[in-house]
Amino acid sequence: MIRERNDMLLSYYSENLLEAGCDEAGRGCLAGPVYAAAVVLPRDFTDNILTDSKQLTEKQRDRLRPIIETYAIAWAVAKVDATTIDDINILNASILAMHLAVKQLTNKPQLLLIDGNRFKPFPGIPHQCIVKGDEKYLSIAAASVLAKTHRDEFMLRIHHEYPIYCWKTNKGYPSKQHRRIVAEHGISPYHRKTFRISY
Length: 199
Prior knowledge:
Elements: E1 19-25, E2 34-40, H1 58-71, E3 74-80, H2 82-88, H3 90-104, E4 111-115, E5 127-130, H4 138-159, H5 167-170, H6 176-185
Parallel strand pairs: 1-4, 4-5
Antiparallel strand pairs: 1-2, 2-3
């Protein structure tokens, strides 16, 4: 059942600028890429359940994804793989993924709304970092949903390559089961070697 929301998120940060909300998914995982999305929504876009993807069920996220992709003025998703995460660290990889997503947008935004408190300036576009922005602004919440659903889709694909790790259910996150399997069988090429993976 779709959860009704009483506290509607804000449609925009600036009254006069075309904004793109940006967020990432998979930052705390042991395996798989980090994904990021950038979304430019129309000013009149509304949805009674859209919020931070972590507060939504899988069914709600899957319902929202085609709505966001259909009605957004522009949207893009990008990923940075585990090898690069190991090379440049997860914070830099997350920011890189956001930059790659913004770069793909078909409509250039005039302002980037970034979930969190850390970002590196994107050339030619000012940004505003917003802590818990995915709970405050529709465009950031939309980006969180796209990043999460696209990443989950990728993890389901690679689950078939390495079913032993149960990525179909844990999506690469550090569950007790995931850590136990790694302790018993070692890591895959998709694991992040710089993370504390096993017990």
